[in-house]
Amino acid sequence: MTSLLILNGPNLNLLGTRQPEIYGHVTLADIEELCAAKARDLNLGIAFAQSNSEGTLIDHIHAARGVHDGLILNAGAYTHSSIALMDAVSSTELPTIELHLSNIHAREAFRHVSYIARVAVGQICGFGAAGYPMAIEALANHLEHRP
Q: Which strand ranges, in their side-by-side order, compose the sheet holding 3-8?
């Protein structure tokens, strides 16, 4: 069975209460339920992890190699600053979709830079929690049709 890791970065544990005008009122637990339902519909295995620590996120990416077939990564603010996360994704060679709840391209200029995008299959942003099931479907499709 194809398996995906959904990895969430800093401050995403505060979803539902953190800046709801930007991120909405949906909690990370709500998002995990949405993702689990989508994974069941597509007959996929799925695992979740969240950390506020860059090193722990890197450890999760390394540990996913050989266990999961793909990665959905919402690296939060580390997207715009972490060459180490970019290198981890690149090193594991896991097909990765970069995901953001908000449209990072419509926000502050520093958020327009993404180190993760350089090594990702694609990017989904701006659709709130609905972006997660979109990312699952997109990554499943990519894995099914890769050469």
A: 45-50, 3-8, 70-74, 96-100, 122-125
Coil vs helix vs strand at 143: helix
The neighbouring-strand residues paired with 3 are 45
Spatial distance between the Cα atoms of 135 and 113, rounded to a whole number of angstroms: 20
Q: Which residues are catalytic?
A: 23, 100
- The residue written with tokens 């709801």 in the block is 20
- Write down the pLDDT at residue 99: 97
pTM of the model as a whole: 0.93
- pLDDT of 53 reads 98
Q: What are phi and psi of 97, to 5 degrees?
A: -110, 125
Please state, in angstroms and rounded to a whole number, the distance separating the CA atoms of residues 106 and 38.
28
State whether residue 120 is helix, strand or coil: coil
Q: Which residues pair with 73 in a beta bridge?
A: 7, 98
Report residues of the chain scoring pLDDT below 70: none
CATH class entry, domain 3-145: alpha beta
